[in-house]
Amino acid sequence: MKANAKQQASIPELTIRAVVLGAVITIVFTAANVYLGLKVGLTFASTIPAAVISMAVLSAFKDSSILENNIVQTVASAAGTLSSIIFVLPGLVIIGWWTGFPFWESFLICAAGGVLGVTFTIPLRRALVTTSPLPYPEGVAAAEVLKVGEAARGQKGGSAESREGLFAVIIGSVASAGLAIFIATKLAATEILSFFRLGAGATGFGGSFSLALLGVGHLVGLATGVAMLLGLIIAWAVAVPIFTSMYPAPDLSLADHATQMWQTKVRFIGAGTIALAAIWTLGGLARPVIQGLVHTLTVSKAGVGTSGDSRDIDLSPMWVIVLSVICLAISAWLVWQFAVGAHLNALPLTIAAVIAILVLGFLVAAICGYMAGLIGSSNSPISGVGILAVVTSALVYMAVANTAAEATAGLVAFTLFATSIVFSAATIANGNLQDLKTGQLVGATPWRQQIALVLGVFAGAVVIPPVLDVLAQAYGFAGAPHAATAITAHPLAAPQAGLISALARGVIQQQLDWGLIGIGAAIGAVVVALDQSLGAMKLLRLPPLAVGIGIYLPMDTTVPVVVGAIIGWWFERAAMRTRDPARTKRLGVLIASGLIVGESLFGVLLAGLIVGFNKDAPLAVVAEEGPWAVAIGAAVFAALVAGLYGWMMRRGKAAA
Fold this sequence. Notes:
Layout: H1 2-9, H2 16-40, H3 47-58, H4 66-76, H5 78-81, H6 91-94, H7 103-121, H8 125-130, H9 137-153, H10 160-184, E1 191-198, E2 201-208, H11 211-220, H12 222-246, H13 254-302, H14 317-341, H15 346-375, H16 382-401, H17 408-442, H18 446-474, H19 495-508, H20 514-536, H21 544-552, H22 555-575, H23 581-613, H24 629-654
Helix pairs in contact: 2-4, 2-18, 2-23, 3-4, 3-9, 3-10, 4-17, 4-18, 7-14, 7-15, 7-17, 7-18, 9-17, 10-23, 10-24, 11-22, 11-23, 12-13, 12-21, 12-22, 13-15, 13-16, 13-20, 13-21, 14-15, 14-17, 15-16, 15-17, 16-17, 16-19, 17-18, 17-19, 18-23, 20-21, 22-23, 23-24
């Protein structure tokens, strides 16, 4: 073992080229994830695409290694984790406290909280990774991808499979960005929508021609897609017709009336369903999480199951303490400045916030890390953690603030601001133990990976504020006062941020329609019971959180996700008939990731052009969409989907 460790120690691992490549991938994928998360309420895991891109790029260097590739995916994993800060931070804009995202405050929230997420989980690594039986589905999958690439390194053709994977990401990105550019010219329509009478009320149906959302559907799978379809039916076949009949508006068009009822009534029902589902999910995980943490920490304390490998070393306790103290000091300064600016009782609020960041942050990091190991980072109910954190924080800050009634708006903003730091720690903890599991399986050095994780946090923290700011200026967020002054008339849904800010207001200012929230919670309870029954019968599950998201999201957003889930299910079944099913399925994941990245990056770029030119449609070549625009958009969309999936099937059948 010692000889093997010495041999591995000479293999390149934490190199400059690996860090630079990982940072570039992080910046690109973080920008894409921020846009996607604000649009549809979901983010995509960047680990496997990053590993494939890394293997393809680093294959140009003869001395590159699997450990370098692992560092790249470790740095880049920040794109799929830290970007989840958009579930809380945009709440400051939604409540009208901010009109944009000041760079240094936003950067320091992401950086300080993210680094705490790394340091909080370092003492847990041996307990939750090295000696734990947790499955870590995404970490194991990433390790298998890296091992396949390493095995192909010495074969004839070298890293042909990784180059094929990189090509899949690229053509997916080009296809989705190309369609988005074509739509931006207004030669093709962006969506098809139709509104009609249903009894005494009104409703509608339609969807957008979005390859990114179709890619999301492919990745989330059939169960989530069907659950979102159920939410769509509840919203538009039941709730909207009922509310439009209860609240007639003869001065509004059918489309405006139905949309208004969805925005002002139905979305809050969806929020109630999301809240109930998130709490139920966390409650269901509470027992195994607590039992697992107690068991693994006991084992770790007893020194049982340690590897004895000289490479099995974390960052030193001194560095962990120093980094944690620095981040807590930055956090204290941030919340103090915010409290003073909001004319609040700064000293007790700062003390309470720092204690919450330290205690609640560590507990949340441990819980999120365990949940990620149990069910995977992508499936971990991170938004539920945000809901519980903001409600708990709001109650604590109300108790210590002694705030006058006229200052409660500032206390709501303070709650969201301070909770954002805790949530940053949670998002990083939700993903970094997956990376350390991948590292364990490929023989990586933990302390080098932990440095890479810190660097990834900083790379993500640099890009998040400007991307958020340009999106806020160009599109705005649903429910925010500034949305009416945004340049375009199509605000981003920002579902989790909208819900969490509404809950903060509800607790502190009692500005929440609890009746509609209660109806949503009742629907959520029924869906939970249905999901449990289906699980007992070993049938297709209906994730309750996805049902709530289907109610909450705009119809044109939900429909392409559902379509993508159905197509992805068909593709997975068809892939089983190819020569190499695993390789074919992996191509599907990479194409879907590319679809998301291409359109999302163009969405960010277009936002910059909208702001720069102060024009709603800066790429338009015609003033208005023509009568054939919908048909053209639908035809190009269908042709690209058929072409991409056809290419994957041909590659799968031709695989040796």
